[in-house]
From TrEMBL, chain B:
Signal peptide: 1-33
Record's protein name: Extracellular solute-binding protein
Pfam families, per the entry: SBP_bac_1 (PF01547)
InterPro entries given in the database record: Bact_solute-bd_prot1 (IPR050490), SBP (IPR006059)
Length: 299, 477
């Protein structure tokens, strides 16, 4: 009988194996994520410009103070906030509502779910382009429908209020299915016996929803809201295609503004600081949110 | 137990990595925040092209251009492959195109990487300053002296597409350096419906507005005017600059680099008032994001009495497949007329078009081929052929040739407009200046800002951009 291999060399072998398995992913992460982040952090303290290519002179916290005190940035932050709150609220209400209705069906649930998921699978650029055509004031199908109802044309993309509403509507059209999917998973996981017990007690539909369905689905729904809020905070593509930030700069989001700072004037240092600040905002808000979520679970 | 121990051991390097990363972050942050940054190279300047063309390669070679996607790009590729190949059979011409809105970014992000997948950048006249200052394109002053007959051009055209620092309007500084040669000339044409307003185009801007007003009132469903209003590219900015010029305004004082108080003087305010309060009400509902294609579509569908568009983009208007105005080119031309812009206090028109500029990062063999192509392209016989193929040449003899004047009904408009042209600012800060103007004019046109506020904001913000070179931090906001 062969004696077992000495413990020490086996441990080394295990460690090597672990390192070998992890290192490709780790290297990729370092190269594609950690290094650019550190480099951006370095550049954020300089006046470096990618096109000018001269010396990267240190400006201390100049970029950060300029961004935090800029009226232009405050305006974009407010636009982004209105957009995030509007879009995510609408998506949550609709997504949960649709999921709730689907969960109550016994037939055709799979087909309905698949159909509702189609918008989410499309490229935002494609979605932006066809909504741009549909919302066109002159030949768009939306105004044509309004016309057939005797209503006048609406300038969806070229008026201050309607442009932001249009962005919210288009984003909602595309991303409500995501909330719906998560909510549906939560609804399906609610144990049936709870409803059966409630039925025996002759609990009303509203009572069952309020005391069984919502509390059990709520934590999962909040995670979906978190993902959507982070995504919406970074919105760029739909703005670029639908309104290009207009009219004027009234639909320019923070991400769109960073793009302009980075690529119109190639102010790489300022753009890096802007990006770092956006990452920090997301991290801080996510932490607060996760703490709330944990408290909710503990409760 | 062994399992737990192993997990414990593996978790230690993780903590170490975390600590090391945090320390690196801290050190990097502190060093950069407190100390001077590292120099990664001296101030760039444009490298020089040789005065005479070195020996060309006989190996197969693809000469790549970058432009935005529009009919002249396809025309250039077809023309160059048909004609240049006769002299250089080993060379293939490829015109890479990007959407108009990405044109600047597509070129300058590659310039930033110091590596380009194109040999010839087709730059807008206003991009030259940025490219020259960053050392992205070749200085071809000596090459032009030895190979190009500069007397064959209107001096301002040669200056507009190649000279930096920018020339005075209508002139060329013979001592200034050249960085490009003309590829495609362009300006705005007034497109008018002869069947709706008569054969004679309006002669003054005020008359044009009155005629459009009457036409709109007389023909429900047809708007009086159609012009560029979008906030992308240079759409709304060119529209305001055109009206500004016609009403005697100035964009800036290039000698003192003053914009505030110049752009928003009385003439500038009057121009903004005319544009927003007199012209905008004559446009179609929702036209606040229109650019080249949308204006052409309105004309082709018979929805506008008078429109303004770039000549180089107007060819499609005569295509019966794209028009509801007639089933033949002749029928369309019975209804559409093309004229130079009306004048008012001045007769200025916007300078459009682009030049060819050799990438400083292109391989040497391709740079040599690019210079050879540019020399070939500026030959009198080739310029006439380019005109016949649908291009707009810049040599005076080609502009006056029957090949050009008979190629399209708007070509005479271009020839007549050349002495009237005015350009925007050709400075390294151009991209930001034009964005400020675009967004503010677009805001005024769409009711998001009062016209006076918009003009004052443009002047203030553009001035801040020009004055921001000494600011420490926050550049670009």
């Amino acid at each position: 009988m062969t004696p077992p291999a000495p413990g020490r060399s086996r441990r080394l072998s295990d460690r090597w194996l672990a390192v070998a398995f992890i290192s490709p992913a780790l290297l990729l992460l370092l190269a594609m994520s950690v290094f650019p982040l550190l480099w951006a952090l370095y550049l954020s303290f300089t006046d470096y410009s990618a096109t000018r290519g001269g010396p990267a002179r240190s400006v201390g916290f100049g970029n950060y103070t300029a961004i935090l005190t800029s009226a232009q940035v405050h305006q974009r932050a407010l636009t982004t906030l209105v957009y995030v709150v509007g879009a995510v609220t609408l998506q949550t209400v609709l997504g949960f509502g649709i999921a709730y209705l689907i969960s109550r069906r016994t037939h055709g649930r799979g087909v309905l779910t698949t159909l509702f998921l189609v918008p989410m699978m499309l490229s935002p650029v494609v979605v932006g382009l066809f909504w741009r055509f549909m919302l066109d004031a002159q030949f768009g199908v939306i105004n044509s429908m309004l016309g057939s109802l005797g209503l006048g044309p609406v300038e969806w993309l070229t008026r201050q209020r309607t442009a932001l509403i249009s962005l919210i509507v288009v984003d909602t059209w595309q991303w409500t299915p995501f909330i719906m999917l998560i909510a549906l998973a939560g609804l399906t996981a609610v144990p049936k016996y709870l409803y059966e017990a409630a039925s025996i007690d002759r609990a009303s539909e509203w009572f069952r929803f309020r005391t069984i369905t919502l509390p059990l689905v709520w934590p999962l729904l909040l995670i979906a809201v978190l993902f959507r809020a982070i995504e919406a905070f970074r919105l760029f593509d739909l703005v670029y295609i639908l309104t290009n930030g207009g009219p004027g700069v009234s639909t320019e989001t923070l991400s769109f503004h960073v793009y302009k700072v980075a690529f119109l004037g190639f102010n790489t240092g300022t753009a890096s600081a802007y990006g770092i600040l956006m990452v920090l905002v997301v991290i801080v808000l996510t932490q607060l949110y996760l703490r709330y979520l944990n408290k909710l679970k503990e409760g | 137990m062994r399992y737990q121990q192993r997990i414990g051991r593996l978790s230690v390097p993780g903590r170490k990595v975390q600590l090391a990363t945090a320390a690196m972050l801290l050190v990097a942050t502190t060093m950069v925040a407190c100390g001077d940054g590292q120099d990664d190279g001296g101030q760039a300047s444009a490298p020089k092209a040789p005065a005479t063309i070195p020996e060309l390669t006989n190996d197969p070679l693809t000469l790549s251009f970058i432009w935005f996607d529009w009919p002249p790009a396809q025309a250039l590729e077809a023309f160059a492959n048909a004609e240049y190949k006769k002299e250089r059979p080993n060379a293939t011409i490829k015109v890479n195109t990007v959407p108009n809105a990405n044109w600047h970014d597509a070129m300058f992000t590659q310039f930033a990487a110091r590596k380009t997948d194109f040999d010839i950048a087709i730059l807008d006249s206003q991009h030259i300053g940025e490219a020259v200052t960053n050392g992205n394109i070749l200085d071809i002053t000596d090459f032009v002296k030895s190979n190009i007959d500069v007397a064959a051009y209107n001096p301002y055209l040669l200056a507009a597409y190649g000279q930096f620092p920018q020339a005075e309007t209508g002139k060329r500084d013979e001592n200034a350096s050249l960085y490009g040669l003309p590829l495609l000339g362009d300006t705005w044409t007034m497109i008018y419906r002869k069947d709706l307003i008569g054969d004679q185009p309006p002669q003054t801007w005020d008359e044009m507005i009155s005629v459009a007003e009457k036409c709109q009132a007389d023909h429900p469903g047809v708007s009086g005017l159609a012009f560029h209003q979008a906030n992308g590219s240079d759409a709304a900015a060119v529209t305001y600059n055109t009206v500004n010029g016609v009403y005697g305004g100035n964009l800036w004082d290039p000698k003192t680099r003053k914009i505030e108080g110049v752009l928003n003087d009385a003439a500038g305010q009057e121009a903004m008032d005319v544009l927003v309060n007199r012209m905008k009400p004559l446009t179609a509902t929702g036209s606040g994001n229109w650019f080249i294609d949308e204006v052409n579509a309105a004309v082709a569908q018979g929805k506008a009495c008078i429109a303004f568009n770039w000549i180089a983009a107007s060819g499609g208007l005569l295509d019966p497949k794209q028009s509801t105005l007639g089933s033949t080119r002749e029928q369309i031309l019975d209804k559409l007329g093309f004229a130079t812009l009306p004048s008012q206090k001045t007769n200025l028109v916007p300078l459009g078009g682009m030049g060819m500029h050799v990438s400083a990062y292109s391989p040497e063999a391709n740079q040599v081929e690019a210079l050879n192509f540019m020399k070939w392209f500026q030959r009198a016989d080739i310029q006439k052929k380019w005109a016949a193929a649908g291009g707009v040449p810049s040599r005076t003899d080609a502009l006056q040739s029957p090949e050009f004047l008979n190629a399209g009904p708007f070509n005479q408009v271009y020839a007549d407009s050349v002495p009237r042209m005015r350009d925007m600012w050709n400075v390294p800060e151009y991209a930001r200046l034009v964005d400020i103007e675009n967004t503010n004019v677009n805001a005024a046109l769409n009711g998001a800002k009062a016209p006076k506020d918009a003009l004052d904001d443009i002047a203030k913000e553009q001035q801040a951009v020009l004055d921001s070179s000494s600011r420490r931090g926050g550049g670009g906001l």
